[in-house]
Description:
By secondary structure, this protein is an all-alpha fold. Helix content is 79%, strand content 0%. The longest helix has 21 residues, at 86-106. The chain is globular and about 50 Å long. Residues 1-13 have low confidence and may be disordered.
Amino acid sequence: xxxxxxxxxxxxxQDMLVxxxxxxxxxxxFIVERFPAVLAPLLASxxxxxxxxxLSALSPGGFLGLIFAGxxxxxxxxxxxxxxxxxxxxxxxxxxxxxxxxxxxxxxxxAVGGTFAAFGLAGAFVMAMASRRVGGMAQWAIFLLAxxxxxxxxxxxxxxxxxxxxxxxxxxxRLSHV
Length: 178
C-alpha cells in the first residue's frame, strides 16, 4: 500500500529526504541553543519573531527530547513523507510545532516544538491511515502517542502542546486529503 503511494508521488530514490533534513535541523538547533549569544542578535532583529517561531518548531528542548523526537520522525515521519508532497509534510511539521508550542505556553508550559511537531506528524499519519482503512497502523501510532503521554508525567503544559500539535496535524491532513 505505502509502496504504491510512494511510487505514485514520485518519491522513489528520494526516500526520507525531508525527514532527514528536519532531523538534521533539529540537531543543529539543539547545538545552537547551547550558545545563547549566537541567537541573541538574530532574535533581536526585525525578523526575530519569525525566527523564534521557526526555532520553537525545531527545538527538541533537551537531549532526551532530541532522541525521542528524532526517533518519532524517523518512524512516523518517514511513513508520512511517502504519502504526502514535500510541502504538505513541511507544513504539517512546522504548523504543528508552532501550534503545539503556543498551546503549551497558553497553559504555562515551555515551548518544545520539535517534540510537538512529531505529534502533529502522528496526527496526520493517523488521519492518512484511517482514510486508507489501515487500522493497524493507526492503532500503532496511537499507542506510541499514549506511551509518550505517560512518559510526559501528565504535565498540563506538555499535554496541551501534544494535543494542540496532534489536532493540527489531523486537521491539516484532513483538509489536504493526505
